[in-house]
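B., you asked whether I could sanity-check this one before it goes into the benchmark set. Here's the sequence:
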Amino acid sequence: MAAPAIDQLRRYSSFRHLSDEDLLILGARLQARRAQRGEVLFEAGDIDSFDYFLLQGTLLLVAEDGRERAIEAGSEAASMPVARLRPRQYTVRAQTPVEYFVLDCDVLEELLEGQASAAEIDVGYGVVEMETGGDEADEMLAAFRSDLENRRFRLTSLPEVAVNIRTLLSDELVNLNAVADAINRDPAIAAKIIRAANSPVYFGASRCDTVQAAINRLGLETTRQLVVGFTLRDLFTADQPLLRKLMQESWEQSVEVAALSFVLARHTRLFHAEEALLAGLVSSAGALVVLNYATQYPQLLEDEELLRQWIARLKGEAGALLLEHWQFPEEMVEVARHAEAWFRCPTTHADLCDLVLVATLHSYIGKRRKPTLPRIDQVPAYTKLALGKLTPELTLQALAEAREQVAAARALLTAP
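And here's what the prediction gave me:
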């Protein structure tokens, strides 16, 4: 079996920064192999100095707990070394006839010397380590994406009270008393609904003292959006200190984006304010999925920067999957999927995701830790929302003048 050509080697993340000369050296020192269906390449627990790269066919990875996942040639997972961690975390066997090659890790380390500057690039979230052969996160990221696609780990469930209220309100014949009874079964949510109805955002001529009166003031649709929003806060918790810290940060960012989305919706009059509030809250839902999944990798639980990289890279696809699991409407799923895709522009008219994108940009103003941001007037969503009639400075001024509304919206979500 012939060694792979230079253009084939460039398909693998480990080799993308190597020169043609280095790739020629690499090609001369790798070992090209074949395996028949069922043949084992290596077993869980093995310790060796070789990296394995798939050229053709499909490999099956079997963890010690019995979990399985397949890697097909040409896929994103196949662009990285197969099950790289040592001791080996998987038994790897050929699911079909396969062609692959192995390379001594020392060879690659020699070739990468002097190229450390190429190992990092700016991808819009600050400086992020590239997926190189030396990055053990590659295997974990590939496993995460595979487990997401194949539903191999349990996604967080939407709290029961939110599910019950949403189910009730799907019935056209539902009445206020039935909704109030469902909310009253959760005293904490009941108190928040009454507090919301009496807040500066919705305050009327008289004070609401019961859930029924609060729903009457808010309306059924606003009540539904608020109940779901209120229940999300309790999901952003963890026992491990670093996970708890990042959960709290993600929730606080969600609250800030939600409050700004609420005010911008009222300003533009293109969307229901409560729908925008909920969209802002779920814009960071992917962080919840990523951090819960990270508990499967103890080495991640002490590596804050690596966990932040995971969130930045994966929260979009993870958040979309979670909201689909919760049976949220497609426009909400789109918000989670593209929450920081600044140059997204699938249509000429503004949608809910555009609103949240602009709110997210504003939420980072003054923050010490933030992604690399474009100028706001370069963002398509800004123009589509008719905010383009204002300069960025005047947009900021408009939000500053609405700071009481922003504060009131934020208070809705942070009150105990």
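One thing to flag: The radius of gyration is 25 Å. Otherwise nothing jumped out at me.
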